[in-house]
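Bug #77: duplicate submission created two jobs. Keeping one. Sequence:
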Amino acid sequence: MDERRGSTKSSKEAAENQEKWVYDSSVDHKGNVPLRASTGIWKASLFIVAIEFSERLSYFGIAASLIIYLTKVIHEDLKSAAKSVNYWSGVTTLIPLFGGFIADAYLGRFSTVLVSSIIYLLGLILLTMSWFVPSLKPCDTQPCLEPRKIHEVVFFLAIYMISIGTGGHKPSLESFGADQFDDDHSEERKQKMSYFNWWNFGLCCGLLLGVTLIVYVQDHVSWGIADIVLTAVMATSLVIFIVGRPYYRYRRPTGSPLTPMLQVLVAAISKRKLPYPSDNAQLYEISQSEKVHGRLLCHTNKLKFLDKAAIVSTESSAEKQNPWTLATVTKVEEMKLVLNIIPIWLATLPFGICVAQASTFFIKQGVAMNRSISNSFELPPASIYSLAAIGMIISVTFYEKILVPVLRRKTGNERGINILQRIGIGMLFLIGTMVAAALVEKKRLGIVEKDPLKGSHSMSVFWLAPQFVIIGFGDGFTLVGLQEYFYDQVPDSMRSLGIAFYLSVIGAGNFLSSLLITAIDHITEKRGKSWFGKDLNSSRLDKFYWLLACMTAANWCVYVFLARRYSYKNVQKVAVADCYDGEVENGGSLA
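Kept job's structure:
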């Protein structure tokens, strides 16, 4: 009886400790185990969302008008300007792979955000100087027919400094925000699912102000004044981020995440001739108490060749101490997770290609149309992008407040639907976007053909509203789903890299878009007339949009095939035998 009472008391104390302290390998700003009540969750995440808001305000304030700046100030032609924007966007969204690696392996997420934000701020300061320092200005006279070469050099140096800053900022900040929620605490785990939705809500608010207020200042006041505003906002948010330091939960960097994967591969190859054990329980694994960072994973039956790395060939302690000859089941499963992500990453690249059109050709279409709201006010061309932000805000709010609660009751799943289903639904909206864009561009070209002198200036810019709203609504499913997928399904030690993988979809999509434009330009020019002329009126963007719609539709079928066969991360709850069933936990396969 006394033993039973003692056991009950011990269990109660353990439960109280779990509720009071956060035992998920994180530490507070002093390096101690974090106190749950005073650290993390929304009290910390709000500081993090604040700096994301200002960074997105700055980024979209620059990105939305970049093609206009390149054609009006730098005087590039349409094709060259579109390629320049795609290259910059591609670099900006691929550099996070390096930034995420540095954050996970060496600096930690907080330090990486801090350093990269300072680089970002320096880029904005240089951008401002390129407009106000007399020797760096485009011209001394207006109109500026040919800008100074030094202005071009400083301008591109500034925006690529911003790219480098984004490279560390984006993957580290979003994963740092998600780190504020404990996966092993049921209430905090649910809040983390909402975190990605509200993170994107804040992102969209920054985007909305960037493509309206900032773009208006660029169009009606001065590019330089807009740069001053962006610099001041970024500097203020950096101070806010530092002020929140006592409230954050931190993860210590664990060294290169690539080394354990290489160890698994070497061990599996060296043991390739060994027979599989009759029971998977015979594969090598450490106990939960010995696991210092991250969580233990359950064994899965896919990619069984890698399981050989966890076969204990001798009982000697020397083998168990050498990670190059024997890997744990968790390390093997982490290797499998990374390999499983590759097909999904490839299947989402057409999404990245389509998204690239919104910041290039969609904006240039707006320039060629009637943007008058009243007799005294003309909408800046890049401001039409705000409709995509509004669509995404509506989509995220609808998903979070209506769809998820209904689906939770119906399916009994915490997420409502699984992550890959969410991404797949968003891809369907993307097909609709390209179809709408093709139809609108066909109508615009018809108007130009009837009246070449007036062109399409009689056609309201709000004809572009459907394609922007649809892509925004779809982004609320696909973009948020990709963020959650790559954060959740990578090994715990690679979560900044996971966010970088999501960003690399957009980055690779931009580069592929440029390659596709070059290839189509070359092929169609050989056949008579290029789809990409000197300006929009001599181009056939409608045919390009139809091609993208067909590519995306075909790719969606491939994506569904892969998603139905995907195995989600299996995390141990308490013991080796007590595991989450990945597919059940995440709501089944994509039907």
